[in-house]
Amino acid sequence: MHPLDDLEKIKKIDPGGMYDRIYQFPSQFEDALKRTKETSLPDWDKADIKNIVVAGLGGSAIGGDLVRSYLAEKLDIPFFICRNYTLPNFVDSSSLVFVSSYSGNTEETLSAFEDASKRNAKIICITSNGKVEEISAAERIPCVDLPKGFQPRAALGYSFVPILTMLERLGFVDGEETNIKKTKEFLISNRNKYSFEVDAEKNEAKKLATKLHKKLPIIYASCDHFDAVSTRWKGQLCENAKMLAFNNVFPEFNHNELVGWKVLSDYGDDLIVVILKDKEDYPRIQRRMQIVKDIIEKQKVEVIDIQSCGENLLSRMFSLIQIGDFTSFYLAVLNNEDPTPVKVIDYLKNELAKR
After folding, report:
1. Distance (Å, rounded) from C-alpha 204 to C-alpha 195?
2. I need a surface site. Which of 69, 91, 296, 299 has the fewest CB within 10 A?
3. CA distance 7 to 56
């Protein structure tokens, strides 16, 4: 029996229920949409907003990063992700700042929240608890209230949908509520082929996890709409499977990192590359992907192409996220690691609290 077909082992290694979070992920879209539409907004004039900033880290930031990537060709104002203690110098009263912290207590995000308040920025909070919730309530700042009990990385729908929906409510985009609902339905119809009941020989996520097991994966994607998707893959492999992974984007890495695929005598056997592809990747990017694959394969390193699917861009982006999430879970099983806890991050936070 393939180890990923041993359902009892899978259940035993996952006491925190990460598999259920991944499988039930599509339901977050509808719930997050409802919660966001119920959140009151001030009577802000779209014309007064000159830039958008999402302040967040880790699982609370990736939702904003995906919105930025998804709307790259739709927004006519800058959209910036701040993964730091301080906001960019351009932030002022004409800025819309999303303060995204699932726990509500992220140290860096709280600092950026204070910075945004001092600069009189227009602020919307997204949280389930903690100081962000307390401050937003005390200062009457709009706050999307999220359900408790998730790991931030397992609450991606709750960090993504509120930002996109708020931007639609403010008039920056339209038609996105429909796209969100269509993507939810697509993900529900698509997930069964990755479920743990499907044998490894027929399950693409299990197959991919088997290939990535005991390797160091490098994830490549185009920069147009899939840069944040590749970042999501890296994060999920690191946090769920407890293994190192790296990512980069076309065409930038073709001008530097590509040269590093020359001297691999000591560790080439330990590497594997995954290229995330989409039918609407820029034509010259598609050509680069094939040439780069040929270059890397000549170094005896396996390259795996993963093609997006779905009828619209949002579905295609999340189709790659979905298979990446399931793959990271199955890798956790192969690594004999509980996918839910992130003990080293908890240790770091505790050490920081002492100083």
Report:
1. 10
2. 299
3. 36
Nearest CA among 160, 114, 165 for reference residue 141: 114
- Confirm whether pTM is higher than 0.85: yes
CATH H superfamily, domain 3-13+191-334: Glucose-6-phosphate isomerase like protein; domain 1 (3.40.50.10490)
Q: Please state, in angstroms and rounded to a whole number, the distance separating the CA atoms of residues 216 and 68.
A: 28
Euclidean distance between CA atoms 91 and 97, whole angstroms: 8
240-275 tens-digit pLDDT: 999 999 999 999 999 999 999 999 888 999 999 999
For the annotated catalytic residues, the residue numbers are 239, 255, 349
Q: Is 311 left (phi over 0), alpha (psi -120 to 50) or beta?
A: alpha
pLDDT classification of 1: cutoffs 50, 70, 90: confident
Beta bridge partners of 144: 126
Specify the CATH number of the domain 18-174. 3.40.50.10490
Q: How far apart are CA 347 and CA 353, in angstroms?
A: 10
The SS3 assignment for 257 reads helix
Q: For residues 93 and 43, what is the distance between their CA atoms, to the nearest angstrom?
A: 15
- Measured CA to CA, the distance from residue 58 to residue 126 in angstroms comes to 14
Task: Compute the distance between CA of residue 119 and CA of residue 354 in angstroms, rounded to an integer.
Answer: 30
Q: Name the nearest CA neighbour of 85 among 67, 108, 65.
A: 108
